[in-house]
Specification:
Blueprint: H1 6-24, H2 30-49, H3 57-72, E1 91-93, E2 101-104, E3 109-113, H4 117-121
Antiparallel strand pairs: 1-2, 2-3
């Protein structure tokens, strides 16, 4: 069996991190998981063209899925920090960089690293 390349490792890790956040938010339905797979396929090409960007893939996949969900279902993930007012989604920061986090711009806080929303939400649905 051939070893998995660092690029494939980055893609598998990104998939796992985003799936963990979807599970934590109760949003890991089959059609949503398909959105993750679609993003991974697209980012495989991207990281193949720019291997130095492998460390950025998790944040990009998270943003891709967030954008696709907005188009189809609405905002995700909803902010667990702000109690009142209009519900709003967290954003990924940095937009293109390593160590991506979910951030609430309204409160000005980092909520959780991508892949760790369960620790910020108590593992409950954020809908």
């Amino acid at each position: 069996m051939d070893p998995i390349s660092p690029l494939e490792q980055a893609l598998h890790a990104a998939r796992a991190l985003v799936l963990a956040d979807l599970v934590a938010g109760g949003a890991a339905e089959p059609d949503v998981v398909s959105l993750v797979e679609d993003s991974v396929v697209q980012r495989r090409w991207w990281v193949g063209q720019w291997p130095q960007g492998a460390g950025y893939v998790a944040g990009l996949v998270a943003q891709d899925v967030q954008d696709a969900l907005l188009d189809r279902y609405g905002r995700w993930p909803l902010c667990p920090v702000c109690g009142g007012g209009d519900p709003h989604a967290l954003e990924v920061e940095p937009e293109l960089g390593p160590d991506p986090h979910w951030v609430c711009h309204k409160a000005g806080v980092k909520v959780a690293p991508v892949g760790s929303l369960g620790s910020a939400t108590g593992g409950t649905a954020s809908s």
